[in-house]
Amino acid sequence: MTSTPPRRKRATVHDVAREAGVSRGTISRLLTGEGYVSAEAREAIEAAIRKVGYVPSTTARNLVRQRTNAVGFVVHEPHSLFLEDPNIGEILLGANEALSEDDYQMVCLVIGSDRDSERVARYLRGGFVDGAVVVSARAHDPITAVMRTSQLPVAFVGHPPDLQGQSWVGIDNLASAQEITARLLATGRRRVGMIAAALDRDSGADRLAGFTRALGDRFDPALVAPVDLYSYSEGAAAMSALLERAPDLDGVFAASDALAAGALDALRRAGRRVPEDVGLVGFDDSAWARRCTPQLSTVVQPAAGLGRAAARSVLAQIAGDQTEPAAILLDTPIAWRASA
Amino acid sequence: MTSTPPRRKRATVHDVAREAGVSRGTISRLLTGEGYVSAEAREAIEAAIRKVGYVPSTTARNLVRQRTNAVGFVVHEPHSLFLEDPNIGEILLGANEALSEDDYQMVCLVIGSDRDSERVARYLRGGFVDGAVVVSARAHDPITAVMRTSQLPVAFVGHPPDLQGQSWVGIDNLASAQEITARLLATGRRRVGMIAAALDRDSGADRLAGFTRALGDRFDPALVAPVDLYSYSEGAAAMSALLERAPDLDGVFAASDALAAGALDALRRAGRRVPEDVGLVGFDDSAWARRCTPQLSTVVQPAAGLGRAAARSVLAQIAGDQTEPAAILLDTPIAWRASA
DNA sequence: CCGCGATGTGTGAACGTGCACACACTAGCG
DNA sequence: CGCTAGTGTGTGCACGTTCACACATCGCGG
């Protein structure tokens, strides 16, 4: 109905050229920092830019340069997990830091629904970004396929099972889960259970595998409580269920700190003391770990480091320095505190 | 040194035209859904698109259309607050939902440093987005000035003091702080303190003002502990300080749930029972509120609603439906639980 | 037979940049 | 004087779309 609003037209390089009495080329050379611009031309141009309020059009520049100096940060999360998982924020900040150093703009794209998924795919393939960091992709995620066919430089944080020839950054979930379980056993616990989550992702499945391997003969499948999300409430519910099945439980490995915090609450409600009656260990070393009373013993996940490493990999691919897909594993120290 | 990597050139509309034996115009009409395309032309074009793997260039489209169908979501937060504040995640998802409904892409821009600030300003002014939602801007934030001079449709969540003629969405911090303080007093508390935060923003200052007004004659400035951030650890520290100054304290209003959670921990450590010895109320109704034991009585901040309202305002400005700057206040019910 | 609206198609001109190239001037050197 | 290298400047074209316009065909009524 209504015609386009009569917004003021923006100043272009032509306006500046007319105002400063030079040609477009000279302005372009000044702005792109190529040199070969006389002092007087420089001053005239700078004055003209201020006068007409000129700002270069990112869009036009992107079109002719065939690159945007922007990298996408794709978050694909169901509502609740995005809010509960403190790692994502850390990963994001780490990636932003690395991109910022190379003067790249990070654009964070959130996928909440299938509709979002399509739109984001269109954007990514439409030359909107020079590359992308993808976090928490699931098995058979449409985005994974899009990234493969589009040939866009990409690095995944974590690796969905259907990754082919694409770079990823992660931690050794299996080894670190095995290690912390072993340390829990070394405190003398005899009946140790696990709250496992997100078994459709590598992180979840590998943590369970590490737990199983550490227990060896002593592994009892009845002591594993699988849940969907790494959330506080699921942790509390799983812990209650576990206590009902095995009242003699004296140790628990929770697949994330949020789960452990929920479990801690359920244990307290059930009258169990931590660590006296039950030893509890978590995973991530997120804010949860220090916030709990007692503070959690946990595997330190270098979240910011993961973001940085993923971003650097994408930048290297863009620059052409990294041509082969790489898998990067970061170290995971263990923070041994009071909960076990 | 190295020349540009020999990346495969992307297919353009010309390639499709040649392949399908039609002209560019017909393809454009099909893709933009204008109609006036015969059935046979449509089929030929669709087949050709699949064959050559054509994806429209967002950049070129944006240039000629003078719009991007994207809205920026600008987060300006120091490291720690961004991670601690659960509201931002909710606001983001609410905004994304509203934008998604109108087929707009949300691009989230994170400002972590001054360098980021400049780069983001360049992007916003460079025609990269059609509008922006800005959260948690501070007093004299450079972004506020950029938004003013650039004439870009914008809506702030919360209102920094130097807002001029720009739309914003928020809650009545003063009235709701006054209301919950009054309810706390109605439970019979006589010595009520407050943990105040972020007094350089409207939210922080207004919550303190509401508290003061509710107390009237009984207000004692010694019972106010001001801190910088809405964080758990600052809440714990402030609570300890407050108890030292006034051991006879029997009620506390914390300016956020995160602060309240920290305060709760400090109270427990000091041997005070909640709510028996001390009544505690918070603000936000974030995940913290239900997670604490006992659960917090608090002011419900409609975070997702704020995001949605801000996004809708920006969309209305883009469409030209909203020409005057508007201030939108959302309702804040009170959730009365167990902590007071 | 002309005019008219509806449907379908092709063509040229933008959009606002960057880049390659041509050109002008100066200084230095044989 | 001519040749070269260095510096500074202007011009045409390309980037990949969309949009306005011109044009063609058809059916139909006056």
From TrEMBL, chains A, B:
Official protein name in the record: LacI family DNA-binding transcriptional regulator
The entry's keywords: DNA-binding, Transcription, Transcription regulation
Mitochondrion keyword on record: no
Domain HTH lacI-type: 11-65
Pfam families assigned to the protein according to its UniProt record, in alphabetical order: LacI, Peripla_BP_3
MF terms in GO: DNA-binding transcription factor activity; transcription cis-regulatory region binding
Domain HTH cro/C1-type residues, every copy: 12-55
